[in-house]
Amino acid sequence: MADVTLNKLVKTFDRTEAVCGIDLEIANNEFVVLVGPSGCGKSTTLRMIAGLEEITEGDVLIGGRRVNDVPPKDRNIAMVFQNYALYPHMTVAENMSFGLRLRKYPKAEIKQRVVEAADILGIDDLLDRKPRQLSGGQRQRVAMGRSIVRNPEVFLFDEPLSNLDAKLRGQMRIEIKRIHQKVRTTTVYVTHDQVEAMTLADRVVVMNKGRIEQVGSPSDLYHKPSTRFVAGFIGSPAMNFIPCKLVEANGGLAAKVNDTISVPIPADRSDRVRAQVGKELMLGLRPEHIREQRADDGATGVACAVTPDVVEPLGMETMVYFGLNGVEICARVAPEASPNPGTPLTLSIDANRAHLIDPSSDMVL
Amino acid sequence: MATAVAEASVGAGLRASLTRNRRWALIASYASLIVFVIFFLFPPYYMLITSLKTNKEIAELSTNPWIIEKGITFQHYFSLLMDTGFPIYFRNTIIVTICVVAITMVVSILAAYALSRLKFWGAGVLATGVFLTYLVPDSLLFIPLFEIVGALGLLDTYWVLVLVYPTLTVPFCTWIMIGYFSSIPKELDEAALIDGANHMQMLIKVFVPVALPGIIAAMIFAFTVSWASFLYPLAYIFTEDQMVLTVGTVTTLIKGDVFHWGGLMAGALLAAAPPVIIYAFLMDYYIAGLTSGATKG
User: What pLDDT does residue B90 have?
Assistant: First the structure.
């Protein structure tokens, strides 16, 4: 059990900065997910915490102790790798106990810990098998078991589910969450999959180009993104960005998309964006906030007449794609609205959920 | 109905043509394999029947050379084992080979681990350099090496071979092992590192077992070189009790212009037996070692 602190952490590879001075405090027993596109520095950050990558500048503290020069084995961490990294010549039990055997634990204790971990993971009947006799999901469980038996202060996961198929990934995600609830330990989890990030994390750290874009709870990131990158990265399908102009209208402010569509800015946000009046901005709208018109839409529903180009029925919802201001927009409507490509349709934009983004700074206003 | 029948007949036709293709492929494979087997087994066969013929039959030009016409004799084997230094050559060869294989494996495993995993300045150049030294032929090396081993006082003992054979075996074995070690995923050492292994533990407990096919391939190579090398023992050893199989057999059984063919063939067959037996047992490993990293596995 330990907290992890990153202080102005920098990593440079041959003059290229992979991680550009990030600060992060991870509380004891917290599950933090580092998420971002390939090359954003999330894995490098994790590897610096693990001690597998030298730190160019800054500090890593585990449990208040500066570990920059401490070798991985003395950091009391355990890591689960994307390709499992199981020792192919050892049985599952030997794989799990390898670290304990190297540390010369008594045999009885090793056995007890392996059995306990196997029990938690439901791999009791696989202990005598070799990794090649296991399926991908079972291998990943063994890799986790190898970490659990060590009873480390920090768990590190480096894209552990990327090699699994979609169905298994979903199952293992639940499994990891269940294990974290049973074995409360500080966990740092790296993934490029925002669904994994949202479902697993207590807090999500969104990284981009070696920097932290935003840190927050999954719900915060979803509802209150602070940058255009976060707004676009979190959520699937991604948020729509529609060019608009901020104008004064009816005593308040409105984002004018075109002559017919003008989205009023709620009064509580008007003061914050008043300085931008007259500027070209981006209106950020999630697909679920552009939907069919309903009787209870009220004053915040802005009618929007569109002609769908493509309609994707998914069963519980239907995705509607159409062009607006030169960009393709995705809307999520109820299947009962039965939209058809080429047939005009009036949708409703939820003005309360709209975000205004300054394209010059890419910040959400 | 008619369509179904037509489809069925098309399907049957396709299957028939596939079977026909396969039959022809098999016939061609067997035919060419038989040619190869005859080609490669002919020398050992000829050695065997010559070693079992009497001296009189070998010398007689009127008999058929491909078969034994005048009765089998083990006389050549007996005289080889009783009257010549053959058993001593055999013992010397085994000692030299075991020492060379052991030295080669220790040096090349350590070198390959260092060159493939410990990231130090110049590791890549050094790895290429190691391989380049293998490209220098022993026919060029044996003269300068003669001076060196002479100065060390090792001439005319089989220990000189224990010293010089590794100059041939270590570079190539190191090269094989570098390739093999490089094919081991880096995460495996990282996992071992986090599990608490130091470099020696990582090498012995993870790398060596995982790279066993590569190590066996390298061992077979080192074994073959030290078992069958001819030039170095010919150049450095002159006394009979220090000789190894290759040179000993030839110098004992070729006296001037008299060739003891029966004894030579018997000696060659006995000398070739250990490599054949070892190859037969380790062939699968050898092939796995040479093709490592070719596929994801």
Answer: 92
Domain span at residue B34? 2-43
Do B191 and A73 make contact, defined as CB atoms within 8 angstroms? no
Closest by Cβ to A78, choosing from B194, B197, B209: B194
User: Do residue B190 and residue A77 have CB atoms under 8 angstroms apart?
Assistant: no
Mean confidence (pLDDT) of chain B: 86
Which chain A residue shows the shortest CA-CA distance from B208? A89
- What number is the ipTM of this complex? 0.81
Which chain B residue has its CA at the smallest distance from A94's CA? B205
Binned average pLDDT, 10 residues per bin, chain A of 365 residues:
86 87 90 90 91 90 89 90 88 92 92 89 88 86 89 90 84 86 89 89 90 90 90 87 85 81 82 81 88 76 85 89 87 84 86 86 83
Asked if B195 has any chain A CB less than 8 Å from its own CB, the reply is: yes
Is B187 in Cβ contact with A102 (below 8 Å)? no
Topology of the domain comprising A240-364: OB fold (Dihydrolipoamide Acetyltransferase, E2P) (2.40.50)
Task: Write down the pTM of the prediction.
Answer: 0.79
| Residue B86 covered by a domain | yes
Q: Which residues in B lie closer than 8 A to residue A53 (C-beta atoms)?
A: none
Nearest to A81 among B187, B196, B205 (CB): B187
Nearest to B195 among A88, A89, A99 (CB): A99
Total number of domains in chain B: 2
Q: Do B190 and A102 touch (CB under 8 A)?
A: no
Q: What is the DSSP string of chain B?
A: -HHHHHHHHHHHHHHHHHHHHHHHHHHHHHHHHHHHHHHHHHHHHHHHHHHHS-HHHHH-TTS-TTS--S----HHHHHHHHHSSHHHHHHHHHHHHHHHHHHHHHHHHHHHHHHHHS--TTHHHHHHHHHHHHTS-HHHHHHHHHHHHHHTT-TTSTHHHHHHHHHHHHHHHHHHHHHHHHTS-HHHHHHHHHHT--HHHIIIIIIHHHTHHHHHHHHHHHHHHHHH--HHHHHH--SGGG--HHHHHHHHHEETTEE-HHHHHHHHHHHHHHHHHHHHHHHHHHHHHHTTTSS--
Does position B295 have pLDDT exceeding 50, yes or no?
no
